[in-house]
Amino acid sequence: MLRPMNSRLFTFSGGGVGEWLVTEQRPVVGEPLPLVSRLRVTSGEASVVSDAVWQLCGVTSNQRYVTRAEQSELSLKQQAIGRTSCNRAALIPIRKNESWWALPQDERNAIIANSRHIPIGLRYLPAIARRLHHCRDIAQAAPFDFLTWFDYTEADARAFEELVGALRESEEWRFVDREVDLRLAR
Amino acid sequence: MLRPMNSRLFTFSGGGVGEWLVTEQRPVVGEPLPLVSRLRVTSGEASVVSDAVWQLCGVTSNQRYVTRAEQSELSLKQQAIGRTSCNRAALIPIRKNESWWALPQDERNAIIANSRHIPIGLRYLPAIARRLHHCRDIAQAAPFDFLTWFDYTEADARAFEELVGALRESEEWRFVDREVDLRLAR
Lengths: 186, 186
What we know:
- Chain A is of the alpha+beta class.
- Helix content of chain A is 24%, strand content 33%.
- The first copy, chain A, has helices at residues 68-77, 98-102, 105-114, 117-123, 157-168, and strands at 9-15, 20-29, 38-43, 54-59, 88-96, 129-134, 146-152, 176-185.
């Protein structure tokens, strides 16, 4: 049964084609992904890039930990991904371990709050735009739980390093058991 | 690219075949589903029931609103779906409106708590077993956000009516814009 796709679906296809040139690719923790030279990002359609080395799919979704106050601040400051001025991007797929997923909502929420995940991101708005894709609950088996896609200008590349560095030092990141970091330019 | 399926995927196929006989089917709010006489429930596999009138897929996932205290009580009392003594079941697919999904986590959490969703369910354990499947974030377009599957004995059929009646009177249910109710026997 061929179905129409979720309108919030995005597919990241790594291979030899695509608008984004991969400038760095490294495993941060756990198993690496095969190296690729280019990345194609597609929206809403079934994933049919025949020459892809790998394809990662995820859907944007509702907030899981954001409070009303944070949501108001985010909506004032954040800009949508895809600004023409942004010639730098990062794709950071992560997976969290089973201990994380077995925690009740109140305890996951406390860890995210204690890790200052949302305030850290807010500090770099609007320079660094972010779009989060969820993959844990798609119908197909997926190697990661989340794909985060960022874009920014070359001038903000150092700020981006600060942002990911701060997150990786947090309590939340102790639950990350697979992470790959790709940096891109166009 | 043919992918293996999520191990938490379940597919409910309505049609003329399946282990469950549909004894009642009615739309509670919003558009109905085409009437079917039987239901087949499959796990983990791609949905390929060629004679199905409709197929609904969802994945079991982490808790979104449960506290540590509630989780402890649930794990003490709840039993897994599929008890051989249970010859009655219900499938209740629901969709929530865009206002619900736009709310931040703290406000959705407060509505669920105020609606006593989890305490109401706890009251009927272990008699009424429940398995929740999420469909909003699968890669394919899905007509519902959640599929809830219950099983119980004929002796607990009246208790089941009380349970769904209490939930439908809650503040949470004001956000439900599509709901279908199927009752089944085997």
